[in-house]
Design a protein that fits this description.
Blueprint lengths: L1 E7 L17 H15 L6 E4 L9 H11 L12 E3 L7 E5 L7 H8 L11 E5 L2 E6 L11 H11 L5 E5 L9 H4 L7 H6 L4 E5 L7 E5 L2 E5 L21 E8 L2 E8 L3
Helix pairs in contact: 2-3
Length: about 260
């Protein structure tokens, strides 16, 4: 097995591309990231994954703006994708979508995946070249909630014994910020389920900060937002730093990553 994919997260796009958040343009930053991906990483990757908070505030119009920006091509796939997107040099590039806590589940499915009936928690999986990608949903709150159906889905998915990558919006580990660490899932059942399983890595968003941790022998990889980053401190603070995306390679059961920084 040998392939690569790209991880992005937390776009916080508005109903209009011209909308600003404290003077910052999430749409401009998102386009810059996608252009950098098209020019530097997409030729070497099989697909792109976003781990949620696609829009904020969530509305049907905001999702329609996202679909227009991505120039989604052809018939819609079932969730989580891939949809074929064409923007900033990408041409019908496969892209998978997870919702975040800011994403309205009904509008998310209606606008992106009309063939998939809306579900309150999007716990789904897909296969790529023998690797299982498990998409977990911890809900609409800032704090990750251990919903029984999410944990049950995870346990059933891992029973197959396939090499697996777990994708989610919320983060799972403390990163050294009092207010952000208050959102961590505080239920040990997750780690009991994944312990001693064939889990190659866990990819998260939510905190807008890039970090690499190892828990139970599993890499846990967070990522800076394509929108405004947050400062690693004890009180909320938006800061002006370049967006990140992560290029992930799987080669002979070994997972490696490289973080790209995108100048604005």
């Amino acid at each position: 097995m040998s392939f690569s994919f790209i991880h992005i997260t937390d776009h916080h796009l508005s109903e209009s591309e011209s909308s600003l958040v404290r003077g910052f343009s999430p749409a401009h930053a998102f386009r810059a990231v996608m252009r950098h991906i098209a020019e530097n990483a997409a030729p070497y990757a099989d697909f792109l994954i976003t781990t949620g908070d696609l829009v904020e505030p969530a509305s049907n119009v905001a999702y329609r703006t996202l679909v227009h920006m991505l120039d989604v091509q052809g018939d819609s796939a079932e969730a989580p994708g891939p949809l074929r997107v064409s923007m900033e040099g990408l041409q019908a590039f496969p892209m998978y979508f997870l919702p975040g806590n800011h994403d309205d589940r009904n509008d998310f499915f209606l606008c992106l995946f009309p063939r998939t009936p809306p579900m309150p928690l999007m716990n789904l999986a897909f296969l790529h070249k023998g690797v299982q990608f498990i998409c977990l949903d911890w809900g609409l709150q800032s704090k990750a909630i251990a919903h029984p159906e999410t944990l049950d889905f995870l346990a059933r998915s891992l029973e197959a014994g396939l090499p697996s990558i777990i994708l989610m919006h919320h983060h799972l580990v403390s990163i050294g910020s009092r207010w952000l660490d208050g959102f961590v899932l505080d239920d040990e059942r997750f780690w009991e389920i994944v312990s001693n399983r064939n889990v190659m890595g866990i990819f998260c968003g939510h905190v807008h900060i890039t970090y690499d941790k190892v828990v139970e022998g599993i890499p846990v990889l967070g990522l800076r937002s394509t929108a405004f980053p947050l400062a690693l401190q004890n009180e909320p603070l938006l800061c002006l730093l370049p967006p990140h995306y992560r290029f992930v390679t799987i080669q002979n059961d070994i997972l490696t990553t490289r973080v790209f920084e995108v100048p604005l």
